[in-house]
Amino acid sequence: MKTTYPVLLLVAAMSMLQACNDDDTSTAPVLPVQAQTVTNLPADPTTPSSTTGQPPLSTGKYTLFNLRDNKTVVNTDSASNKWDIGFRGTSIIVNGGPIRSGQGGAYVYTGTFDELTTIPTSATFAQDQSPSSLAIPSVSGAGWYNYNSTTNLVTPIPGRVLVIRTGDNKYAKVEILSYYENAPAAPTSANRSRFYTFRYLYQPNGSMKLN
Amino acid sequence: MLSILLLLAIEQAPDLAADTSRTKQLDPVVVTATRTERHVGSLPMPVTLIGQQQIRQSGSLRLNDILREQTGLAIVNDHGQGLQVQGFGPDYTLILVDGEPLVGRTAGTLELSRLTVGNIRQIEVVKGPSSSLYGSEALAGVVNIITANPAEGVRGSLSSRYGANQTSDLTTDISLRSGKTGLYLFGNRYQSGGYDLSPETPGTTVSPFLNYTTSGRLTTSFGPRLKLGISGRFFTEQQDNSLATVDQRLVSGTGRVRDYSINPVLTQQLTDTWKLTYRYYHTGYHTTTKLAYQDTQAPYDDSYFRQNFDRVEIVTERTVRNRHYLTLGAGYIGEGVEATRYPGRQQFSTRYGLAQFEWQPSTRLTLIAGGRFDAHSQYASQFSPKLSARYELNQGLAIRASAGVGFKAPDFRQLYLNFDNAVAGYSVFGTQEVAAGIARLQQQGQIAEVLIDPGRFGAIRAESSVAVNLGAVLDLRKAHDIPVRISANLFRNDIRDLIETQVVARKTNGQNVFSYTNLSRVYTQGIELDGSYRIELGGSQLTISSGYQLLEAKDKAVVSSIRNGDVFRRNPETLLTERVNRSDYGGLLNRSRHMANVKLFYELTKSGVSASLRGIYRSRYGLADRNGNLILDEASEYVRGYTTWHLTAAKTIKKLTLQAGVDNLTGYTDPSSIPTLAGQLWYASLRWDWAIRKSKSN
Lengths: 211, 698
Known about the structure:
heterodimer; A: 5-stranded antiparallel beta sheet; 4-stranded antiparallel beta sheet; 7% helix; B: mainly beta; 22-stranded antiparallel beta barrel; 38 strands
C-alpha cells in the first residue's frame, strides 16, 4: 500500500500556527490542503492472488481508514472516532448514524473533484441507518459505482464525489478511481476486485472549505 | 387457365396496363409499400427491391448475406444477426414472409441467418414507419420476403455448394403447374463446421451447426373469381455449442431451434372493382437449450422457449375509376408464449382495423393516406396514421414525401419475465409480474427498500415514433434512354417511450430488482444516396451501383445532460474525472456514422459469363462504454471502421451454372469486437436448372 504524508506536515504546521495565535482562530489564514491518493486498499477481497495463489482473504469485515493519518485502523477500533471511512466489497461506510459511534455522515456530490471547493451550508449529510441502508447507497447506479451484469465489472461512476463528515466533525471529499488491483485502465474479470484506489482531500481545521 | 389470366389482368393496376414491356422490366412490381401491386418507381416512399438475379450473382446463402450489401442497412450482432434500418435496432423492423410476420426473437433480434435465400423471388425493403399497414414492430421499416410461385409446366433445380469452414449448402426445388393448379416445393440443407477466431481461449467463436428448411405452396382456383393459395414452411436447426463463461470455464451442449408456419390465402374477385382477400396464418417458434459445465457436468443453461402466433385477416380492395384505390381491412392476432423464465403460459391478443386511400388527382400527383388502429389486450390502444405524396416534376424527376407514426408493442419479456439471477443476486420482472414479484420477495424478507410503487409499471405504453422521409428520384432511363438512376432520401425519426430497465427496489443483498418502463426519447436522422449506371458494350453489360448513408442517432436525455454539464468521464491515464463535451458524444452504440457500398455486376450474355465485385464499408461504431459514464464518448469505445470485398464469377453452359467466389477477400477480422466476421471464405457451387415442358410465357 502506497501512502503519502504531506497531510502530516500540514497538520504539524497547522498546530504550530494555532499555537502562535490561538486566541483568534477565525482570522487565522487557512492553509491550502492537498489531495492525496491511496492505492490498492484491500476491501475484504474474496479472490486468491494470481501471483502467489494465496487463498481468499475474505473476513467479512470492513477495512477501516483514517483520513487524517492516511492509514488503516484495526477493526477492533470500530467503536471509536479513530476511523472515518470503511470499505468492504462495494459497500462504503461512514462513522455516523444509529449503528456507529461517531457523528459522521456523507452524501454523494455530482461534479468533479476539483470543482467542489466548499461544501454548501445547505448540504444534508446522510448517515448509516442500518447495514442495508447506508449513507452512501451500495447499489449500482445510485451511489458511487455501476455494475455491469454482462461483464461482471464494477466501475466507479465518473463525476461522483463522496463528501464525508468524519466522526469528529471534520470534512473531506473522496473520489473512488478504481475497484481493481493496481487500478487497470480497462479492467477485465481476470483482475482482482475489492481493491480500492481513491484520491481524497481532508480538511483538518473543521471548516467546509475543501481546497 | 382463363381464370388465372383474368386474375393476372385484374391484379395489374389498370393505369399501368399501357406500359411497355420495357418499362415493366426496368420498373418491377412490389407489394409491400401499399399492400397492393405497384411499380417500385411510382411509390411515394423509399423502397429497395432485391431481385433473384442479384441474390444469385452475389453468391448469397442466407438472408443476412444479401441484406448487408444494401444501402442504409447494417447487420448488427446482438443475440443473433439482426437488421439495422435508419439507425433503429433489430427490434424495430418487421420481417415478413409473403406478407406474414416471422416470430421468434431473442432479446429483440430476429436471427436473419435462419432464412435461406434459395426460395426467394424478391426481397422488398420499405424504409420509414409502416405501422399504418402492418402494426407493431414496423417502426423503422418492413422487409418482405416474396417466395417463388409455381411456374408453368414442370421444372426444377438442384444446386450444391461447398466452401471454407466446411460449409455446405444443398438446395432443390420443383415446380408443377397444370391448368388451374400449381405446386411449388423447396428443400434446403445447410451445414457449417463453424470457426474459432481466438483459439487461445476455450470454446469456439461460432459452433458447428446443421439446419434444414422445407417450404411449399399450392395454388388453385375455383371458378373464374376465386383463387386459393396455401403456403407452408418448416425450419429446424441443431447447434453443438462450446463456449467459455466469464470465468473461463468451458460450457458445452446442444441448442435446437424449430420454426414452422402455414398460411392459406383465399382471393375473391367480387366484381371488376371489388376484391376480397381472406388470410389465415399460424406460426410457431420453439427452442431448447441444454448446456452443462464440461468439468463438473453441472447444468449451465437448461431452458426452453415456445412461441405461437395466429392471425386471421380480411382485406377488401376497391378500385375507383381505375385511378383511385381504397383498401379496408380488419384482423385478429392471438399470441402465446411458454418459457423457462415465464410463469405459466402467457397469452395476448390484438384486434385491428386498417384503411388506406390512394388518390391520383392528376397524372403527376399521387397521394396516399392511411391508418391502422390496434387494440391490444395488455397495453393502451395504438393509432398509426401515415400520409405520403409523390409529385412528378417531369418525366425523369419525381419528389416524394411521407410522414407517419410507427409503434412497437411491449414484448413478452417486458411484460412477463420472472427471473432471479442466482449467481449475481439480482431479479428482473416484467411489468405484469413486478407487483407479485416484489410481494413475494418482501414476504421472504429479501427487500430492503421499495423505490418505485410496483403498481405503476402495469400501465406500460408501446414505444412509438414519428417519422418524416423526404426524397427525390432522378430516373433518366425512360424519358431520355440514359441508363442512370439516382435517388436521395432525407429521414428523421423521433422515438418516444423507449422501454428500458428501471430499478424498482433494493434487495437486502445489495442488488437491485428491475422491471421495464417507458424511459428514453431518442432521434435518428440522416441522408441516403443511391445511384446506378449501366454500360452496354457489345454483348456485355456492366452495372455499377453505389450507395451511401449518413446517420446520426442520439439519446435526447444524454444530449441535454451533456448540455447541462452533468456528464463526466474518467481519463484512462490518470483515472481522474473530466466533463464530457457535446462534441464528444458519439450517440447510440452500434451505429456507424458513414456506411457506403459499391457494386459492379458484369454479364456477357452470349457466353453465359457473369461476375460481380462488391465492397461494403462501415465507419467506426460504438461497442461499449469503457470510461464509466455509460455513454459513447471516447475513441477506445469504438470498433474500427472496415471494408469487406466480395467477389464472384460464374459460367453457364446450357442448364448448368458453375459459380465460384470469395467473401471477405482481404480476410479482415476483428475477433473481439466482430465475432460474426469470419475471415476470408472461398466457395464453389454447381447449379442445374431443368424443365420437362417448355414454359408458355404469359
